[in-house]
Amino acid sequence: MRKLEKIEARRLRKQGKSIKEIERLIGVRRSSVSVWVRDISLTAAQKKRLAGRGHSLEVSEKRRQSRLSNETKVRMEFLHEGLRDIEVMREIDLFALGMGLYWGEGSKTNRGAIELSNTDPRIIQIYVMFLTKVCGFSMEKLHAHIGLHSHLSITKAEHYWSRISGIPLSQFQKTSIQHSISGRGERDHLPFGTFSVGVYDTAARLRLEGWTQGIYKKLFPSQSALHDLTKLRV
Predict the structure, then answer these.
(1) I want to staple 42 with a disulfide (CB 3.0 to 4.6 A). Which of 46, 55, 84, 163 is the partner?
(2) What is the largest CA-CA distance in the chain?
(3) What are phi and psi of 209, to 5 degrees?
């Protein structure tokens, strides 16, 4: 087998193929190819072609790197523009922001809970602030829960989310373990899992539902009758 590969490598080299090309075409390590063909001299035309190709690849790579660099600069300019916009705003409405998170991301299955699950630590921090500063709950009232893949560390996840949310570990429910054969051994992009934070309070839940209806009524007064409060599953 190696003899046939050597013969093929020498044939390709005589055609003017580069060591790298031969390696790719016959699936043999570059070091072996180099030894097999080291006594073969290329013509001036073949050397010129290989040199030109190498230069072309180098130029293409420089262009690619330059394009990526320019794209990064443009993205960063937009990002900093957004940051500057926020800096000149007089205030951020925590009520509207928190309600948007609850309305869009909050759990609607438990009628007595005001709960939100997410993997973004910033969203969790904002929602905790909404629950404490807008809804008026003390930190002692908040409960937390983690959903985690089986190959990840529960201890690390618990301490991470406790630090992010400010909720002590004593208020954490038992971590839910998710078993995934397909993801076993692969790099995990969510090393701390999904975090849920909320409060069990039926009255507060009803009040939030009233807030959502009030917001909708102000924005779409002609449509508010379609979403009467009496039709809510509370």
Answers:
(1) 46
(2) 90
(3) -65, -35
**Order of strands, sheet of 194-200, starting from the edge strand that comes earlier in the sequence:** 113-118, 194-200, 143-149, 176-178
Burial of 88-97, coded b for 16+ CB within 10 Å and e otherwise, reads eeeeeeeeee
> DSSP assignment, residue 214?
H
Choice between 117 and 217, residue whose per-residue pLDDT is larger: 117
Helix axes 2-14, 19-26, angle to 10 degrees: 140
Any idea where the domains of the chain sit in the sequence?
A: 2-41, 45-90, 94-231
Residues in the chain: 234
Render pLDDT for 87-114 as a digit per residue (tens, 0 to 9): 666 567 889 999 999 999 898 777 788 9
d(C-alpha 112, C-alpha 103), whole Å: 15
Q: How far apart are CA 209 and CA 219, in angstroms?
A: 16
Whole-number pLDDT of residue 6: 86
Q: Cβ(112)–Cβ(202) under 8 Å?
A: yes
Residue 195 pLDDT greater than 80, yes or no: yes
Structure tokens, 213:
């209806």
Residue from 127, 124, 185 nearest 151 by CA: 185
